[in-house]
Amino acid sequence: MAQESPKNSAAEIPVTSNGQLEDSHEHSFNRDLKRSLPVGLGLSETKITSHGFDSTKEGVVEAGPFPGSSASPKSSVISPSSAAASRLAGQGCDLIIPTGARAQQKSGPVVLADEVKNPAMEKLELVRKWSLNTYKCTRQIISEKLGRGSRTVDLELEAQIDILRDNKKKYENILRLAQTLSTQLFQMVHTQRQLGDAFADLSLKSLELHEEFGYNADTQKLLAKNGETLLGAINFFIASVNTLVNKTIEDTLLTVKQYESARIEYDAYRTDLEELNLGPRDANTLPKIEQSQQLFQVHKEKYDKMRNDVSIKLKFLEENKVKVLHNQLVLFHNAIAAYFAGNQKQLEQTLKQFHIKLKTPGADAPSWLEEQ
C-alpha cells in the first residue's frame, strides 16, 4: 500500500473551475513526483511530454543525466494515469531540459512562412522609380535648353558624332539620286527594248527598208542589253550604300542615342548630388546624400560604359565605311564609263570583277517542272 501512494496522489489532482491546477495541490504533486524518481535525478533534469487521448502513450517522463554525479544514472520512464496526462496537457506548459542536456525536446510541427511578394506592389515600385527618373531627366533637359543647367561634354566624341550625322544626310542624298537614276535607266532600257522589237518587225514587213530597220533594231537591242548590265551595277551600288546608311550607320546612331540618354541621367543625378552637398548636413539629409551618392555612382558607370561603346563603334564604322565606299565608287565609275563609251566587254568585265550576276527576265519564276 505504501508503494501506491505516489500513483494515487498523481492521479487525484483537483482542478479549479477554469481547468487549471490549484497551487497547493501542484506543489504536493511535484513533491510526490520527486519521491518516486531515483536518487540523483531532479525535476530540473526532466521533460514531461503529454500526448492526446488517441495516442498509444498517455504520458512520458524522460530523465537526463544528473550534472553533479559522476556515475551515469539509469533513465526511468513513468506512465501516469490518463487523468494526470490530461491535466498536464491542459496546463499548457512543459518542463524543458536546460541547455547542455542530451535529451531531445519533442515539439509540434513549426511552419515558417516566407514573406509573400505582392506583384502589384512591385509594379507600383517600378512605376515610382521610372516616374522619378523621368522627372529628373526632363528637368535636366529643360534646364540645359534654358541655359540654367550644366552638361557634361566630350568635345572629341561630340565632334565625331556631328560628322557622322552630317555624312549620313549626304549619303542619303546620294542614295536617293542613285535610285532616281536607276528608275530612269530602267524606263529607258524598257523603251529601247520595245523600240528594237518594233524596228525588227518593220524590217520583216518592209522589203525596201529591210536593212535600215534591221540596223536600228540591232542597235537598240544592243543598247538595251548594255543598259541592263549598267542597271545591274547601279542596283548593286544602291544596295550596298543602303546597307551602309540604313543599317550600319543607323545602328551606330542608336548607340549614340543611348549614350546621350545616359549622359542626361548622369548630369541629372550629378546636379541632385551637388544641390544636396550645398545644403545642411544633419540626421535627415545624410541618408539622402548617401543614397544620392550611390545613384550618382551607378549612372556614372553607365555613362562611362556607353561612351566607350560609342567610341569603339565609331572607329569600326569608319574602317568599314572606307572599305565599302571604295569598292562601290570604283564599280560605279567603271560601269558608267564603259557604258557611255560603248565598250561592252569592259562593262561585262566590271561586273565580273565585283561578282555581280544579272537577273534574266523571268528567272525568279520557277518552271513548270519545279512546280510539280
TrEMBL record:
<feature type="region of interest" description="Disordered">
    <location>
        <begin position="54"/>
        <end position="78"/>
    </location>
</feature>
<keyword id="KW-0333">Golgi apparatus</keyword>
<dbReference type="GO" id="GO:0019904">
    <property type="term" value="F:protein domain specific binding"/>
</dbReference>
<keyword id="KW-0175">Coiled coil</keyword>
<feature type="region of interest" description="Disordered">
    <location>
        <begin position="1"/>
        <end position="36"/>
    </location>
</feature>
<dbReference type="GO" id="GO:0034315">
    <property type="term" value="P:regulation of Arp2/3 complex-mediated actin nucleation"/>
</dbReference>
<dbReference type="GO" id="GO:0006886">
    <property type="term" value="P:intracellular protein transport"/>
</dbReference>
<keyword id="KW-0597">Phosphoprotein</keyword>
<feature type="coiled-coil region">
    <location>
        <begin position="289"/>
        <end position="320"/>
    </location>
</feature>
<feature type="compositionally biased region" description="Basic and acidic residues">
    <location>
        <begin position="22"/>
        <end position="35"/>
    </location>
</feature>
<dbReference type="InterPro" id="IPR010504">
    <property type="entry name" value="AH_dom"/>
</dbReference>
<dbReference type="InterPro" id="IPR030798">
    <property type="entry name" value="Arfaptin_fam"/>
</dbReference>
<dbReference type="InterPro" id="IPR027267">
    <property type="entry name" value="AH/BAR_dom_sf"/>
</dbReference>
<protein>
    <submittedName>
        <fullName>Arfaptin-1</fullName>
    </submittedName>
</protein>
<dbReference type="GO" id="GO:0000139">
    <property type="term" value="C:Golgi membrane"/>
</dbReference>
<dbReference type="GO" id="GO:0032588">
    <property type="term" value="C:trans-Golgi network membrane"/>
</dbReference>
<dbReference type="Pfam" id="PF06456">
    <property type="entry name" value="Arfaptin"/>
</dbReference>
<keyword id="KW-0472">Membrane</keyword>
<feature type="coiled-coil region">
    <location>
        <begin position="154"/>
        <end position="181"/>
    </location>
</feature>
<feature type="domain" description="AH">
    <location>
        <begin position="152"/>
        <end position="352"/>
    </location>
</feature>
<dbReference type="GO" id="GO:0005829">
    <property type="term" value="C:cytosol"/>
</dbReference>
<feature type="compositionally biased region" description="Low complexity">
    <location>
        <begin position="65"/>
        <end position="78"/>
    </location>
</feature>
<dbReference type="GO" id="GO:0070273">
    <property type="term" value="F:phosphatidylinositol-4-phosphate binding"/>
</dbReference>
